[in-house]
Amino acid sequence: MPITEITDLSSLLLRMLTQCQPLYSSGKVADYIPALAQVAPQQAAVAVATLDGKIFSAGAAQQNFSLQSISKIFGLVMAMNRLGDGLWQRVNMEPSGQPFNSIVQLEWEKGIPRNPVINAGAILVADVLVSHYSASKTAFLTFLRRLTGEEAIYADQQVYLSELEHGNRNAALAYLMKSFGNIEAGVPQVLEHYFHQCATAINCEQLARSLLFLANRGVQPHTNEQICSRRDAHRVNAILSTSGMYDQSGEFAFKVGLPAKSGVGGAIVAIVPQFGVITAWSPPLNRFGNSVVAMQLIQQLADELGLSLF
Ligand code: DON
Deepest of 71, 102, 208, 279, by most Cβ within 10 A of its Cβ? Predict the structure, then answer.
């Protein structure tokens, strides 16, 4: 079915959601952050926001989940806007081929993270934000409120504190980068910012709407605001295509063919240039930290609507 002929996607989304539900049991909810281990596994939602202002959804599309690594997209756009090309002296743009929280490559590569969407890269970006904003946590939430057009975006304190308490591996990444001179601010302050942005509570519909600018050359369609340059929208999409699904990015490009980003809260967002944004959410994760049901939903939808870029 060509996407131009779609008037009501909701019934298609509902059918796909129902078909995917047997997959709940093939994944496992993230438990290395204790607050996330308490989330009920058998939940799912999918939403599609289009550039012409429509939203289609099915399942628990207005139920909040933890944004987690998807927050790395927003942090990156803020840091690109503040620092310009200087950012790329401090973080690379290559896929890592390693798990999202891997530490070994960072030492070999002298404290320069492979890309801004693995944990090391996002902590580096958090350092840029802490160093360039007087109140970076508030600035992050303000940015998301502006993009969604909703005030009800906040950081879940329970998730924030849980990660602060159990964030030893991220602390190791941050101190290793600091030892190479690639972190400017104090490590505790950088980690607080990073955990706070990961703890953002959001739902599928809000998330899909918030990222429409990446499908529209940097311009948020409902406000006509230029959120980032056309060149930076291209660059973010390029990084998401090669690295957004971590060491499953190759498989995702092979099967789906869209820039995408996952989070251990169970959400995946996929950008469809010139069309819109798909978000899917379901807590059980595969061994790469990507939601099993959300992957399947996005794959089926992209397949059925012919959305692949390749
Ligand atoms: O730092 C962490 O480990 C988490 N706050 C975020 C990791 C994450 O979402 C990886 N995504 N699949």
Answer: 279
Q: Distance (Å, rounded) from C-alpha 225 to C-alpha 35?
A: 36
Domain range for residue 72? 3-305
Establish if 183 belongs to a structural domain. yes
The answer to whether 284 and 27 have CB atoms below 8 angstroms apart is yes
Atom of ligand 1 nearest to the CA of 264: 9
ipTM of model over 0.90: yes
Nearest alpha carbon to residue 284 among 13, 16, 20: 20
pLDDT digits (tens, 9 = 90+) for 89-115: 999 999 999 999 999 999 999 999 999
Examine residue 119 and state whether it is found in any structural domain, yes or no: yes
Residue 64 domain flag: yes
Residue 310 belongs to some domain of the structure: no
pLDDT in tens, 248-299: 999 999 999 999 999 999 999 999 999 999 999 999 999 999 999 999 999 9
Residue 93 falls in which region: left (phi positive, over 0), alpha (psi -120 to 50) or beta: alpha
How many structural domains are present in the chain?
A: 1
Nearest residue to 89 (alpha-carbon basis) of 181, 212, 179: 181
Q: Do the Cβ atoms of 213 and 147 come closer than 8 Å?
A: yes
Active-site residues: which are they?
A: 69, 72, 194, 246, 264
Alpha carbon 94 to its chain's center: 17
Instruction: In whole angstroms, give the CA distance from residue 284 to residue 64.
Output: 16
**Ligand 1: which of 33, 68, 202 to mutate, most ligand atoms within 8 Å of CB?**
68
| 188 Cβ contact partners less than 8 Å away, ≥ 6 residues apart | none
